[in-house]
Amino acid sequence: MDEDHHRYQSSDEEDFQPDVFGQRPSQPVFSKPIVLWKDPNTGSARTFKTLLVGTAFGGSTFLHSLQKKTLIGTLLQPGVDLKDNTLNVDSPFNANGNIYTLDADPSVAIIPVHYQVKDHDSLFFARTLLDTIKADRIIVLDTLSPSTYLSGSYDTDYNLPWLRLLKTTGSQDVPQIPTLEVPNLVQNLGAALVSHCEIRGKKDVFLVLSLQEAIYGKAVTTKATIQGFQDALAHLGLESVGRAADFNLVQQILQKSLDKKAGQRRMQDDRLYA
After folding, report:
1. What's the pLDDT at 261?
2. What is the DSSP code (8-state) at residue 149?
3. What whole-number distance in Å separates Cα of residue 251 and Cα of residue 244?
4. What is the Cα gyration radius of the chain?
5. Is the dihedral of CA 54, 88, 67, 161 positive or negative?
6. CB atoms < 10 A from the CB of 103, how many?
7. Who's near 255: CB < 8 A, 6+ residues apart?
8. Least confident among 14-23, 158-167, 204-213
9. CA angle 205–106–72, rounded 5-degree value
10. Which residues are CB-contacts of 157 (< 8 A; sequence separation ≥ 6)?
11. How many structural domains does the chain have?
């Protein structure tokens, strides 16, 4: 069988791992998400004080902009084209879920997930992630679509950044961030991570939602959306982490981001189309 299309098995991990972090990644075929560590001597699971997960595209853009971080591994999702997306791990446009630690505080792990994990894949992604990375506190950075968000009042004036919060039972209160109003629902990866933690009875798990803008009927992520994540981390006691965000890099990402599937620009000015 062609080496670029071999079927991944657990016994293949040692041979496969150098390809992911080297210069010529291969294209495995596997049925569920897997976590690979850059250091082959790393055990199957690692423990951190805080885990930050950013969903595509607002949360992932914010976490990618954090400066002085070190790559320690990656979470691979079935269907992601490794050849096109892992040669340059510093690119914010890769469809990957690289795992980093902050140089200033290695007890903080961050995962910018640069692709949309759909509902039918989210449970497997969440289970793999939480079985592999143990953290005392988990914060998920996600976005709210203005087309589906209900404020409860028809004359609400949305002053961005507009933050909302969901947390697991027993988690500390965060009075600075209002709770997401009923009957709003969250979907995909953010919902799966929080639900999985709630079922396991895990405390100190927070889902931070920053409202996107609506331009010509499209939900777009703006610099104000991403600014909300910095404010939220300050409210959650991680102000120093939020200050590590490079908003010049954020601006570059918003200006240069391309929609490869559509073959056209996904942004105008400082807006990133979801």
Report:
1. 32
2. -
3. 15
4. 18
5. negative
6. 13
7. 267, 270
8. 14-23
9. 95
10. none
11. 1
